[in-house]
Amino acid sequence: MKKFNKFLLFSLIASLVLVLAACTGGDDEDTGDNGEETGEETGENTGEDTGEEAGGDSEQVLNVNIKEEPPSLNPGLASDTTSSSVLDQVFEGLTRIGPDGQPVNAMAEKIETSDDLTTYTFTIREGATWSNGDPVTAQNFEYAWKWVLNPENAETDYAYQLYSIKNAQKAKAGEVSLDEVGITAKDDKTLVVELEQPTPYFLHLTAFHTYYPVNQNVVEGNDEWFTDAGDTFVTNGPYKLESWSHKDKIVLKKNEDYWDAENVSIKTINMFMVENEDTALNMFNQGELDWVGSPFDSVPLASIPTLKEEGKLNISPLAGVYYYAFNVDEAPFNNKKIRKAFAMSINRKAIVENITQGGQLPAMALVPPTIWEENEEGYFQDNNVEEAKKLLQEGLEEEGMDELPPVTIHYNTSEAHAAIAQAIQDMWRQNLGVEVDLANEEWQVYLDTMGNGNFQVGRMGWLADFNDAINFLEIFQTIGGNNYTNWENEEYASLLEESRTITDKEERTSVLKEAEQIFMDELPISPIYYYTNVYIKKDYVKDVKPSAMGSINLKYGSIEK
Amino acid sequence: MGRYLIQRFGSMVVSLFFIVTITFILMQLAPGGPFASEKKIPPEIEQQMNEKYGLNDPLHIQYFNYLKDVAQWDFGPSFKYTGQSVNDIINRSFEYSLLLGLESIFLALSIGVFLGVIAALRHNTSVDYTAMVIAVLGISVPNFILAAALQYFFAMKLGVLPVARFDSFLHTILPAVALATTPMAFIARLMRSSMLDVLNSDYIKTAKAKGLNERVVTYRHALRNAIMPVVSYLGPLVVAILTGSFVIEEIFDIPGLGAEFVNSVTNRDYTVIMGTTVFFSALLLVSILLVDLLYTLIDPRIKFGKEGGKS
């Protein structure tokens, strides 16, 4: 009897252990079942092996955290920074943003521009090949761009990035046929692109992922070519997608057939997807990651002061502005002087030094200093309480009001947004004597509120799509879209239109400056600060720097241990 | 038995139907949409996307289409992850959640039952007090604090276990322990009180009076009856562990289903919200059914479908 009992207990535990073991076993079997996934696995193993072989004194392996599963690795569909941080390494456009932030020739060997800046002729590099051996042709570009502009391909959020091209917007809206779009492959190596208007930043655009080519031979007729690493994921960049274990890890391997392969040092890039910032920082401290922060993920806000003190924190400017939008249809923000009074009574320096702490610059203009250096100064003085009080008084008289009505600041849920809103609430209360409420909303609800104009003051931010002032100024050209303020100005809009036809660089800048002057005079928003890239990296990671556009080219990097 | 099962399946289908309907309505009521983002999409492109995903159809058409797909266990494509279907996402994430869940349930059950039994057997001794102090601590410390503490000591300070991720058996230890602690403590307390109850009952006294060996009395007669409350706790426990692992999954970077479940709501990824909700509901209903079936195995007095039986 006693023995039987023991046996029963033993077998119970044994069976539980078996169940557990079976589950782990099942895991392996699953990968075995699927041809592609086995490929991944062996790939990963050989990858680590070669990494070690090549190792010794200089093991060229970089471990980074990209935070989340990239939503799409199809360059035509991707519209987020996680996807682009992978795509920028595995694909290559006609140009690439070089280490100094200017576009350099990449897939294009030669670029000719017509005098009116509306026709670009690209000659594709001799010997540029896809990872399956096919040559990269002008037709590949034409196919990829027109695929994005095809109204039947609906998920292409970023199609508007191509709207500088002649008839692109009309084709996407289905008004003209794709044949009328200004993209022509003259022969295998020559691509001619006609633009709507002179676009001085067009070579910046061609470095962007929506402008990457795809290999028509493998892509056509296969809607799922980009969903897994494997035979159909054919790329033309410095790296190949070795494996993609969804929501877990991406491994990139150097592409030995890349035209510039001799200048690519890092051989393997492991991209982990660690969502929690603190966990990622712990992994960094344990040596499991070589990089934490922009542009892949972010450094936890709470650890920034310590890292700064230890001198580990790296900061570089980012072309973006964090601002408070005023709803100019809502009292008291219908008055220009009152808007100015609110903007001037914010102490931006205190905010960037005590709250954000990532080396951000106080913003007193719309276009960031990465584009217009002189905007570091701005159009008015930060924290000018005297002037603000005077303007407020004048504004109130104009409106025939005795005192300000209560004001509500809207922002979406986030520790940093909340802290900034509280600080500004306090500043406005003290400096202007106004009753300020805070309203915090979940992101989607917030976008809804802003879109419907149910706000007085709301937090917003803008990160540049390309490195040009027009990208910031055109947000406010008309009401709607990203302009939540309900502010419009005829003169402003016509200046922007005028700038689109000017080919002379100086002249164009001065027209855009004039527009910004009007904007800063009307002040439908209060700029708060210019964004920065904030990151920490291991000392042995060299020559890698996030750009002002928040992208990164690991091609130029190296590991020196 | 057969009839009972058919009845149960019928009620499961009805419950699932209500869950799908209510989730669908709540989802439509929530502001925002899957394509909203800080940078607005031009209207013509948004229009095309709505068209493609059928968001332009009248609500009742969307609803019936969805019901039809769910009946075939097809949850449709994800809005956020292009080219991936919700079924793919559930299949690949559930593997991790299942493994972590089973490991935690095993830990919680084995340690919990053990602690409870020895506490009851050594009632009012230092063993009892120690076991119950552990149990109270386990219940009061939230699992995310425990997770952070475990990570700090074992991975950062001692360096004996990996910080995060889910690559090998070593990686699974910390998250499983963190996840198992609260249910373990709960089971220990449950087990102790029910064991004390049983040990004082007449048939145990009879067995002892008959001169049966102490061990036989404890394990064969007492344990078997005392474990019933723990078994009924198993159903909710399974689901709580599988769905409640979101925080643990995040801290230890495990690509499980809990995270998908929560993140899909923030993303307004409609199909993933529906898919994970239906999946978890089905799981809950099935595990409750299994627990009920388990009763009969342990306690032969319980019969299905008969009066007086527990069902």
TrEMBL record, chain A:
Does the keyword Signal feature in the UniProt annotation? Answer: yes
Boundaries of every Solute-binding protein family domain copy: 103-481
The record, for InterPro entries, names: Peptide/Ni-bd, SBP_5, SBP_5_dom
The segment annotated Disordered runs over 25-56
Q: What Gene3D superfamilies does its record include?
A: Dipeptide-binding Protein, Domain 1, Dipeptide-binding Protein, Domain 3, Periplasmic binding protein-like II
Q: Which GO terms describe its cellular component?
A: ATP-binding cassette (ABC) transporter complex; outer membrane-bounded periplasmic space
Q: Which UniProt keywords apply?
A: Lipoprotein, Palmitate, Peptide transport, Protein transport, Signal, Transport
Instruction: State the compartments where it is located.
Output: Cell membrane
Query: Where is it predominantly found?
Result: membrane
Gene Ontology MF terms = peptide transmembrane transporter activity
Give the GO biological process terms: peptide transport
Question: Per the record, where are the segments of Acidic residues compositional bias?
Answer: 26-56
Q: Which PANTHER family match?
A: DIPEPTIDE-BINDING PROTEIN DPPE (PTHR30290:SF79), PERIPLASMIC BINDING COMPONENT OF ABC TRANSPORTER (PTHR30290)
Q: What does the sequence similarity comment in the record state about its family? A: Belongs to the bacterial solute-binding protein 5 family.
Q: What is this protein called?
A: Peptide ABC transporter substrate-binding protein
Q: Which source organism?
A: Filobacillus milosensis
Q: What is the lineage of its organism?
A: Bacteria, Bacillati, Bacillota, Bacilli, Bacillales
Automatic annotation (TrEMBL), chain B:
InterPro entries (alphabetical): BPD_transp_1_N (IPR045621), MetI-like (IPR000515), MetI-like_sf (IPR035906)
Q: Which Pfam families match?
A: BPD_transp_1, BPD_transp_1_N
Topology class, membrane = Multi-pass membrane protein
Query: Which parts of the chain span the membrane according to its record?
Result: 12-30, 96-121, 133-154, 169-188, 230-252, 272-298
Record key words, sorted: Cell membrane, Membrane, Transmembrane, Transmembrane helix, Transport
Location within or outside the cell: Cell membrane
Gene Ontology terms: cellular component: plasma membrane
The Gene Ontology biological process terms listed for this entry are: transmembrane transport
Q: Which domain of life is it from?
A: Bacteria
Q: Where is the ABC transmembrane type-1 domain?
A: 94-295
Q: Which CDD domains match?
A: TM_PBP2
Q: Does the keyword Cell cycle apply?
A: no
PANTHER family (alphabetical): INNER MEMBRANE ABC TRANSPORTER, OLIGOPEPTIDE TRANSPORT SYSTEM PERMEASE PROTEIN OPPB
Q: Which family does it belong to?
A: Belongs to the binding-protein-dependent transport system permease family.
Q: What is this protein called?
A: ABC transporter permease
